[in-house]
Design goal:
By secondary structure, the protein is an alpha/beta fold. GO terms for molecular function: metal ion binding.
């Protein structure tokens, strides 16, 4: 087997419209397609970043909350590359997004910082 890359990452949102607005308006994703699946009472949106499809956004009725933050079993966080972590965190903070302070990765010497989507999903910005 030879993996060719990551096809997509799936995120379940408590409020589909709020999370869609966050990922599209705040983070710059584009909505490629969207479908309501009546049999599951669920929305599914395919989101792209810089023209590359990477995120599936779902809604489901009454999803359980994340058990702990950020050290829950399974996917810990998503990380996005940016040129200037400090500037990006300042922009997100000014828009009311909850952000942690910028710090330096001790292994690479690059800046990094965590911020959170509307459901508290940890997201990371990492210096490209």
């Amino acid at each position: 087997m030879h993996l060719q890359g990551v096809h997509h990452i799936a995120v379940i949102a408590s409020d589909y419209e709020r999370s869609k607005a966050f990922y599209v308006e705040r983070l710059g994703f584009t909505l490629r397609s969207e479908v309501y699946r009546a049999e599951r009472d669920s929305w599914m949106g395919d989101l792209a970043l810089n023209g590359v499809y990477v995120l599936e956004l779902f809604s489901f009725p009454s999803p359980p909350p994340r058990p702990t933050s950020p050290e829950a079993l399974g996917l810990r966080h998503l990380a996005f590359a940016v040129e200037d972590v400090s500037a990006a965190i300042a922009e997100l903070s000014a828009a009311g997004v909850r952000c942690e302070e910028v710090r330096t990765d001790p292994h690479t010497g690059r800046d990094m910082a965590f911020f959170f989507d509307p459901d508290g999903q940890p997201l990371e910005l990492y210096q490209a």
